[in-house]
Amino acid sequence: MKILVTGASGFVGSNLIEYLNAKECYGVLALIRSPRNLHSGSNLEYRYFDLDDHNISQLDLSDIDVIVHCAGRAHVMKELAKDPLAEFRAVNVEGTLNLARQAAKAGVKRFIFLSTIKVLGENTVLGKPFTNDDNLDPQNPYSVSKAEAEIGLREIGNNPSMDIVIIRPPLVYGKGVKGNFSRLLNLVTLAIPLPLGAIKNRRSLVSVENLIDLIVTCLDHPNAKNKSFLVSDDRDLSTPELLSVIAKSEGLNPWIFRCPQILLAIFLRILGKSAIYERLCGSMQVNIEDTKSQLSWNPPCKVEDSMANCWLKVD
Q1: What does the pLDDT look like over 265-297, one tens digit per residue?
Q2: Phi, psi torsion values for 311, nearest 5 degrees
Q3: Hey, which end of the chain has fewer CB within 10 Å, N or C?
Q4: In the 8-state DSSP scheme, what is residue 198?
């Protein structure tokens, strides 16, 4: 099977390439924007490519069986664009749909799109997780662009020549993780007292190992055709539990004490950090029973093992 992976030097893409490269049954064409996180292999070819260069027609996709589309404009911590939504749309919507149309014309059999759980919303009520039947409810430019890409891909999927598969992960963690999860790793290593013991939320996460296992399952599974799937580790954690698992995976003892949530909310609001409060105290749960049933799939990796991999250095 010949697979094209976009965003192959990114967090998920590079881990996926590492997995596929170790399997002799796959030939891989990896599209990258920068020469980092690269692997070598006789069945692996890299090509430099920018999704928003509008040169997708120059790609030869004639021998590609499946495209796994990991590339995209992700969350920007310090947004400088005058029109963030336009910037997200240029890459995540226009670039994605241009690639998918080109793939359909070339005879690619399946297009797997890595979306985000945030197309369904930012938070859930405790004990009421997102399900595959929920309506789209994106609430920021990033998730709006991903939702619009999903809608456009479903229209392309009406062409019977190419299947569309959409995967909606929550926060992904593992070797080489960056962003907010990397900040949690750094916070744990400081060994400072954390006033988060009273938080009773629940959040779904997915390790990059479990996400990749689902992606590989979707490469040729007949039940994945033209469907969307939610994914997680199938074990929801509160913020105190998450910090504890992170710390213990590195042999550390977390120092977590109880502080009333109302005081924490007031303190962070005074500092202008209300968004941090929502991330620390809010719930965001995912129900993956439909995914497990449709694909006869279960997350193969335990949370503790995957957390330990977060501390590994990227080659």
Answers
A1: 898 888 888 788 888 889 999 999 999 999 999
A2: -85, -5
A3: C
A4: T
Name the token pair of 138. 């994106």
Asked whether the CA dihedral 57, 58, 60, 64 is positive or negative, the reply is: negative
Q: Tell me the percentage of the chain whose pLDDT exceeds 90.
A: 62
Alpha-carbon distance of 122 to 178, in angstroms, equals 20
Task: Give CA–CA dist 252/269, Å, rounded.
Answer: 30
The verdict on whether 173 is a catalytic residue reads no
How far apart CA 287 and CA 230 sit, in angstroms, is 7
Residue 299 to residues 168, 214, 225, Cα–Cα distance (Å): 15, 8, 20
Question: Nearest-CA neighbor of 51 among 84, 87, 14?
Answer: 87
b/e map 280-301, b = 16+ CB within 10 Å: bbbbbbbbbeebbeebebebeb
Please give the structure tokens belonging to residue 191.
């060994």
Q: Catalytic pick from 26, 142, 173, 277?
A: 142
pTM: 0.93
Contact 44/22 with Cβ under 8 angstroms? no
